[in-house]
């Protein structure tokens, strides 16, 4: 934070709130007039809202690993969710830098309540976080601590009905998309996570935790970094009736991109549409799913409000930085898709990002920032060296309202889910290029076609834009050391190779002068 002399000061404490598979179009502070998100709207109104934040990759584990490390996926190499892993690494290299270990080594108390999904052998505890360990992508309703919570509060067990699912191309049952939960709000996994967060918050505020050496401060306690990672609003949308029925399906507008034809698009997108059974559901069910998704968002917002209220009650508001974001977005019928996958649309790559730092004025920033930038932000808030977070840039200068040079592009990548599928994307404020080596590339004019329905690759009207974006993507890939550029060297108009692109140095020394 800033002091009266304008010098940056470390944050006393940091609260990090994260949702899973959460698109920005569901939040009031991002212009949704229907969904009730008063608590996140309150956070936005008292902090900095980033209008254009993007995930480095729209898949849980790689995105969360980028947050933990401040490194792009190609660099940290944790490229897939373990449930669908197709042979990639399943844990970070033990020597890989993480912000958690840096905070731990500096004497911070660390807590994480909720989704980990950051590796198989090494859990959150291995990086210094206190809290129960949760596997996987969904609410772990059989977890011993959750069951103990239900018993402790005399709450009914988990039970669902009215399951919503479509039919897969082979005639089988599709993935569960939604269901009614026969539990009150207080018994939901989301309420449980918020309750456990508040309990840990109270302990940390009293100086209890893994770190015992007191830091400088009037209360003589260690600072804390406390994260709550909700599993929702990731599908399946499993909610009590109050939230499942909160929004009228008849009032739900289908996304404009439901008009997707997949014409001149990579065939994998139509395949994924079949996998997620979109066309077998019918329009009424699609509207019901949107309503349920919005209800899930509203329910999580209520639980976030409980946590923020606890921060106020404990007198921590004036000394605690609060950050909110998501790992990636969700289709919910957009482009005739559900979940996420090998389609680099803004629906799943653009994410919410709110940062409230005590003493800094509320504002809206329009720079193209990334989830990975949160890593350097946390480190700077803690007064630690952010340089090991090599693909991350602190957002604090923007939060302080400074006018600083910022990249006009954002580079994203994807490596597959269910099967390897390499993609790279370069996005500006007005255009998007996606390189798909196995298929047709994509180019979208985001001004005239904000829903990304018309692939303009090869369109003479955009020839100059296409050439510039291809060249710039190539330059950035080479600069960061992402070997994907080797594919681009012989395949696209990126200029004469200044290295032996054939890797045949045994043939001749013709490239030696370079």
Low-confidence blocks of residues: 1-8
Question: How many beta-strand runs?
Answer: 15
Class from helix and strand fractions:
alpha/beta
| Helix coverage percent | 25-40%
Any idea what the shape is?
Answer: globular
Average pLDDT confidence is 94
Main beta sheet: strand number and arrangement? Answer: 8 strands, mixed
Strand content: 15-25%
Order of helices and strands: EHEHHHEHEEHEEHHHEHEEEHHEEEEHH
Distance between the termini: 47 Å
Which radius of gyration do the C-alpha atoms yield? Answer: 23 Å
Helical stretch tally: 14
Description:
There is one protein chain. The longest helix is centred in the middle third of the chain and has 31 residues, at 283-313. The chain is an alpha/beta fold and 514 residues long. Residues 1-8 have low confidence and may be disordered. α6 (189-205) packs parallel to α9. The chain contains 14 helices and 15 strands. β14 and β15 (442-445) form a beta hairpin.
Which structural traits does this protein have?
514 residues; disordered N terminus; single chain; eight-stranded mixed beta sheet; 27% helix; 16% strand; four-stranded antiparallel beta sheet; alpha/beta
């Amino acid at each position: 934070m800033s002091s009266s002399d304008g010098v940056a000061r470390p944050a006393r404490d940091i609260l990090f709130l994260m949702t899973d598979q959460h698109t920005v179009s569901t939040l009031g502070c991002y212009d949704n007039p229907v969904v009730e998100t008063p608590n996140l709207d309150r956070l936005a109104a008292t902090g900095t809202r980033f209008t254009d934040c993007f995930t480095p990759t729209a898949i849980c584990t790689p995105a969360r690993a980028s947050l933990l490390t401040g490194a792009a996926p190609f660099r940290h190499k944790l490229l897939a969710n373990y449930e669908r892993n197709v042979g990639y690494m399943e844990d970070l290299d033990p020597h890989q830098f993480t912000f958690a270990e840096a905070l731990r080594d500096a004497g911070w108390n660390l807590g994480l309540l909720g989704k980990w999904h950051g590796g198989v052998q090494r859990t959150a505890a291995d990086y210094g976080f206190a809290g129960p360990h949760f596997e996987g992508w969904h609410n772990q309703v059989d977890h011993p601590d959750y069951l103990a919570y239900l018993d402790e509060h005399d709450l009914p067990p988990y039970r669902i009905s009215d399951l919503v699912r479509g039919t897969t191309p082979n005639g089988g049952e599709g993935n569960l998309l939604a269901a009614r939960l026969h539990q009150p709000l207080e018994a939901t996994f989301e309420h449980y996570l918020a309750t456990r967060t508040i309990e840990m918050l109270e302990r940390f505020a009293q100086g209890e935790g893994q770190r015992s050496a007191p830091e400088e401060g009037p209360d003589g306690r260690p600072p804390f970094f406390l994260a709550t990672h909700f599993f929702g609003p990731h599908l399946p949308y499993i909610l009590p009736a109050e939230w499942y029925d909160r929004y009228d399906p008849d009032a739900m507008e289908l996304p404009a991109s439901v008009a997707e034809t997949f014409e001149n698009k990579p065939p994998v997108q139509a395949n994924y549409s079949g996998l997620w059974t979109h066309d077998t559901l019918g329009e009424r069910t699609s509207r019901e799913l949107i309503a349920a998704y919005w209800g899930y968002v509203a329910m999580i917002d209520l639980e976030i409000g409980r946590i923020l209220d606890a921060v106020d009650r404990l007198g921590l508001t004036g000394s605690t930085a609060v950050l909110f974001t998501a790992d990636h977005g969700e289709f919910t019928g957009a482009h005739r898709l559900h979940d996420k996958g090998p389609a680099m649309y803004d629906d799943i790559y653009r994410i919410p990002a709110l940062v409230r730092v005590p003493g800094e004025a509320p504002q809206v920033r329009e720079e193209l920032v990334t989830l990975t930038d949160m890593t350097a932000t946390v480190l700077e808030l803690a007064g630690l060296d952010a340089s090991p977070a090599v693909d991350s840039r602190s957002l604090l200068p923007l939060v302080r309202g400074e006018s600083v040079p910022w990249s006009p592009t954002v580079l994203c990548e994807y490596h597959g889910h269910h099967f390897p599928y390499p993609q790279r994307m370069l996005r500006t404020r007005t255009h998007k290029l996606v390189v798909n080596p196995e298929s047709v590339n994509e180019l979208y004019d985001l001004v005239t076609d904000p829903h990304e329905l018309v692939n303009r690759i090869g369109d003479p009207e955009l020839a100059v834009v296409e050439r510039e974006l291809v060249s710039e993507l190539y330059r950035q890939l080479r600069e960061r050391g992402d070997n994907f550029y080797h594919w681009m060297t012989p395949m696209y108009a990126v200029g004469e190779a200044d290295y032996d692109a054939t890797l045949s140095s045994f043939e001749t020394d013709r490239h030696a002068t370079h």
